[in-house]
Amino acid sequence: MTVAAAPEGAVWVVLGEDGEGAVSTVFLGSDGAVLERRRMPRADLPASIAATVTDLRWVWSDASHWYVPLVAAGVRVARCHDLRLCHAILRDSAAVSDAAALRAAGEWDAPAAAAPDGGAALFELEGDTGSTAAVPHGIEAALVEFTRQREASANGAGALRLLLAAESAGALIAVEMNAAGVPWDADVHDDILRELLGDRPAPGRLPSRVEELAAKVRAALGDATASLDSQPRLLRALHRAGVLAASTSKWELAEYDHPVIEPLLAYKKATRLLSANGWAWREEWAPDGRFRPVYVPGGVVTGRWASSGGGALQLPRQLRPAVRADPGWAFVVADVAQLEPRVLAAMSRDTALAGSARGTDLYQGMVDRGVMPTRQDAKIAMLGAMYGATTGDSGRLVPALRRAYPKAMGLVDAAARTGEEGGVVSTWLGRTSPPPPPEWHALQGRAGDQDAADADRTRAQRSARDRGRFTRNFVVQGTAAEWALCWLADVRTRLAALPPVSPAQAAPRSGILHGRQAHLAFFLHDEIIVHTPLEQADAAAAAVRDAADAATRLLFGEFPLDFRLDLHIREDAGKA
DNA sequence: CGGAGCGGCGCG
DNA sequence: AAAGCGCGCCGCTCCG
User: What rounded mean pLDDT belongs to chain A?
Assistant: First the structure.
């Protein structure tokens, strides 16, 4: 197939379905004017995209719909504008002066599409097999929505456009990481399971060590038939044995001194591992030496990613050693030290807090400056300040923080006040919290009546405080997510610029797109894992560090603060 | 029988 | 010691 170059001056190229088995690409200039329109059979799309100039930004309805089959076909795009994700941001953003047209376009409010099924079905079959996304995929709908979004974001701050770009880059990365997968060593996983659970049992049976623990628990309870998996029945059995706990949670049970406690806690830990990340989990989620979680960019209100299936965001640290690089490959494992407090320092321009953080562990910096007696106190206090703690150790420590860092604390306190009053708050780049539902306002209204019942007043107050803690945390968690997205996007770009290694050094299970090059393999809020050929490990590590600095400058300019990374080049992802 | 609700626990 | 934010998933119980 011959492919014409992109037209002169093209900046955007909108992609959409255009009739039976066909797609169209519409090239737009920077002013949004249509420069050229091309229609082609759907099957020609991967080759066409692979041949098109790389600095264009692809505009499409939904990355799960368009990009999954492209990646499966070995095609990467450098940049995109994901209409579904950007719609969700623009619709609610306080930085958009008139979102009426966007709010009226409810067909773009669909949630994330179904899990990518990994197949290339889109280009082989008619119809939309794997996806339940309700957003429109047609070319005309895309053009109309893109125009709406350009108009909505045209007059706003550059920050908002940066957010749209970062969110869209995340959509690409989520698809690519699912395709590449996390290298997963079944033998190491088995060793861990056998150590903690015993040998793998026959179907329907419990592993030997779990059976032994259950027997010990029943013996200690003096009840040979006690049910251990039903909270109400277990609680009654505990009461009969003299353990008068109010719940069966482990931190409450740990309070009691009774022979049943130790085996019971071990039993709970073992059955948790078995059901969450046991042999059945591996057969479903890492059957071929790769763990392929489904990431859901923008899946959390704050802008954090969520995940769907496989529990990607809950992988227990216990199992980290099973994350093992391929032979001849290594990991760059990096996490940001105290991401959220640093973000708070930067966005509040609190030079005192930034000073405590610069060049050091932030919590230790607080101790060194006499703000907190111990590192642990500093951590508890800072988390309490960002989460809205009012009681306990954390609540007691917060006032000292207010004295030492009035600007930083002023920012989160103001966000909390806004939330308590029913208002919305925004992140640094302009993602805005969802407003409280109508019932919330109704409750507050009732409580304000002259003859309101005490119970209503109490409920309304509690509900207002809940709202305040949510908005307090939203600004920090959401801005941290923005920093992380910018970091991630820049890491991706830098890694893509590394030369491919020889076919003999390839990691075939990482896919055609990633198997010969350092690539992102995992992302979890403030941590990334890059899977890299050994010979590129130093370059990949430099990319990760440089991208962190670039993200900091991109968001916060020359504000004097560094975002420190704990970074290691290793063969597994276990604790350093 | 399936789905909602919930306790519990894993992650940041 | 287990409150104060955001999640997903498991097993059990309850309900229609």
Answer: 93
Burial tier of A288 (Cβ tally within 10 Å: 0-12, 13-18, 19+): exposed
Q: What is the pLDDT of residue A204?
A: 84
CA→C1' distance for A285 and C14 (Å): 31
| Segment A250-265, tens digit of pLDDT | 999 999 999 999 999 9
Tokens of A280: 């059945």
Contact criterion met (CB below 8 Å) for A18 and A138: yes
The CATH classification number of A339-479 equals 1.10.150.20
Which secondary structure element, helix H or strand E, spans residue A277, and what is its range? helix A261-277
Per-residue model confidence as pLDDT tens digits over A336-381: 999 999 999 999 999 999 999 999 999 999 999 999 999 999 999 9
State if pTM tops 0.90.
Answer: yes
Strand C atom within 7 Å of A301 CB: yes
Strand C close to A439 by CB, under 7 A? no
CATH topology of domain A291-337+481-570: Alpha-Beta Plaits (3.30.70)
- pLDDT at A134 (0 to 100): 79
The whole-number Å distance from A305's CA to C9's C1' is 16
Residues A297, A304: Cα–Cα separation, whole Å:
7
Give CA separation, A419 vs A19, A221, A301, A482, A513, in Å: 47, 48, 15, 21, 45
Domain spans in chain A, listed from the N-terminal domain onward? 10-156, 187-282, 291-337+481-570, 339-479
SS3 call for A381: helix
Question: Over the stretch A90-122, which tens digit does the pLDDT of each residue have?
Answer: 999 999 999 999 999 999 998 776 544 433 333
Closest residue (CA) to C1' of nucleotide C2 is A251
Nucleotides of B under 7 A from a protein CB: 7-12
Q: How far is the CA of A387 from the C1' of C1 (A)?
A: 17
CATH top-level class for A187-282?
Answer: mainly alpha
